[in-house]
Design goal:
Elements (H helix, E strand, L loop, with lengths): L1 E2 L5 E3 L1 E5 L8 H8 L11 E11 L4 E10 L2 E11 L10 E12 L15 E12 L26 E4 L1
Antiparallel strand pairs: 1-2, 3-4, 4-5, 5-6, 6-7, 7-8, 8-9
Amino acid sequence: MLAGPEHRVVALEAELDVTHLVMASPGWTERVLGPGVFDARHYPTIRFQSELIDYGPGPAAAIAGELSLHGVARRETFRAQILEPADARAGPATVSARATTTIHRSDYGIGALGLFASDSVELSVMLEARVPAADAAPAPIERRPAATLGSAPEPSGCRDHG
């Protein structure tokens, strides 16, 4: 994430290693990572690059950008709730947010999980950015392994709507 002079994130780039996805049971994890769903062997990463971050009233924001998943890139908008607003007087700070969006698996060429899965899936991620002091240069984009990005505590990081 890149923070601007008003201590607001102005750019976001995220990459998730799909091979770190964990479901409630090893059997489900293997199935989800296999060729019928994520096909992690051929598509090991999910990427998101923001195009516009629109701050709303209070701690809300809409983050629009390109989501690349399973070899397909589409424009998606995440609804974000800022959890820890930065205090400019405190110097370097951390800003955290939970962002969610609903996608359709079929838009990305991803197969179903069986009878209990719908096409609509809610993606939920935790975001974290370090905001520099007011006189510092904008913070560079930090790349960290998916396991330390603060992915949702649910077993899959995704919730099925069906």
